[in-house]
Design goal:
about 260 residues; transcription; repeat; 7 strands; 9 helices; 7-stranded mixed β-sheet; metal ion binding; alpha+beta; DNA-binding
Length: about 260
Amino acid sequence: MSSTSFTDLLASSGVDSYEQDEDFLGGFYPESTGSGLPKFKTSQPSPLPISQPSRNFAFSELLDSPLLLSSSHSLISPTTGAFPFQSDFPWQIQSQPQPPNAVSALQETYVVQDLQKKPVPKVPSYMVSRNSNDGYGWRKYGQKQVKKSENPRSYFKCTYPNCVSKKIVETASDGQITEIIYKGGHNHPKPEFTKRPSSGSGASSSAANARRMFNPSSVVSETHDQSENSSISFDYGDVDEEKEQPEIKRLKREGE
DNA sequence: AAGCTTTGACCTATA
DNA sequence: TTATAGGTCAAAGCT
């Protein structure tokens, strides 16, 4: 295992789709808040077997990423290519729609949770948390041991100027990521260059970048490292109608 | 030298 | 109103 790092593997075997998820996630919920940061709600996955709201399907289709909703398996299929062990991952996306009010849609939380323990090749958290393989730059700004979980949480901010996107990574004592929570959205396209040792793999065309921003597959990508109680939550504090193609709109505005 | 991580303290929200 | 928990700040050290 000389030079074949996890990253390399990802890069060479479908990382593209792998990254997409997070990108999509990050780019998906733009900070449409005009009054400061959104009020993020805690996305603690209640163990209910998901049921996806129709609207999810709608936007998922928009994003050209059926995997997010079609089925737990297809959900991770893109990554599966890279991680065979994943093929039997019984993940479930837990959509936790709030009561039927206008705000609920904005605060919907998506959780991808590994429902059963399995002997999966575990990937050290550091391999993932560094840049999350999402192409965005993340800077850790804090770590905290929270009561609700025995595992410490690491807090990351997007390093892109003016980008308020954040994510919280919960890591188990053995280094396994047990939960990832995304807050806010990237208000910028994915950087052309990422820190990853791009042996011709990390690099991606701007076109690809743009497309990735709408691909949810990474939701799983990060989780497949975990084997236990892993879950990823996405908190959109401000997802609204713009959910359709927020990035594009934003880009437009920026360009103006 | 710049950027990132670590870590304790501080601030804010909630019960 | 107070206590507790979660989240963020910022200085120091490291790569």
